[in-house]
Design a protein that fits this description.
The chain is α/β, with parallel strands linked by helices. The protein is built from twelve helices and 15 strands. The protein is 36% helix and 16% strand. Helix 1 links the parallel strand 1 and strand 2. The chain starts with a strand and ends in a 6-residue tail after the last helix.
Length: 350
Amino acid sequence: MMASFLITGGTGLIGSALIAKLLESDNQITVLTRDIRKAKKKLPETVRLIKILSDFEHTKALDYVINLAGEPIADKRWSAKQKVKLWQSRVDFTQQLVNWIKQRAIAPKALISGSATGWYGDGLTKILTEKSTAVNEYTHLLCDAWEAEAQALASTNIRVCISRTGLVLSKQGGFLSKLTLPFKLGLGARLGNGQQYIAWIHIDDMVAALIFLIADQAHQSLSAQKTLNPCRSNPLNQQQPKQFSTEKMKDNCGLGSQPSSLPHGIFNLTSPHPMTHQQFNKIFARQLNRCYCLMIPASLLKLMLGEMAQLLLAGQRAIPQGLSDHGFVFNYPNLPHALAHIMASSPDQA
């Protein structure tokens, strides 16, 4: 027995890593993608690719939907045209996805839908849990609308989890890859006053946390659909030799203790130890054995990037209170350990 997944944003940094982990248990993965040719080059052959939601059969079993789609927010200046793309790829698309789920003959057990710690806006030095309030700025307005569309399913019997993700650290790309070359050249720089907080997470912990949110508890009654129960004991495991064992998933998914109820609602997917920009850069420079002494003033960043400079100058001291309450344990909670692991496994490290 295996589970069926529909994943959007499956060719991205998080999606591709998640798919690789799920395929270790022979799960059925379908990826919704705008570019089938590109996806074929990036994803394993066993992944089914579709271009529109209607290509997924109405009566085909579907256990979990994981929505990671979204136009990259930091790749271009936030022009009016770019803001439309950011909105359409997040808010409008999630609305379409939710409407499609509602119309299905067989409903999934859960929707895990992406968001970002940008929901909080600039939190300054305040510790931010899932219960914290937000600053009313652009990233909050975008993320809040994005989350609201996913939460429209909460009134049904479908479990909804929102993942407010921090900056994901990985050797495969993302935030860290953009920093590496400048720092190796001795051009690493503090942005603004350097006191803005970075909410970060190691890619392995990110994937493990998503699987943790997906997981069903052993004492829950099993439906007629195929069931993935990767992070908790599963009474079907004896008949499923290819499924993750309980002990293996405790190691891989960070399961420390059984929560009393299935996870639902908002979750910060961040390390328990956010760092200021200054602290982060110092640790990263030390990892690369490079100096770190330059500074780019906030005024110059605002001149160069316009409103998008807020992404670099604002910060969120977000902590994963929700995951902690449910018993999740991080493999890489501390930045030096996380960076050491990533850089040691990077083939191009100098």
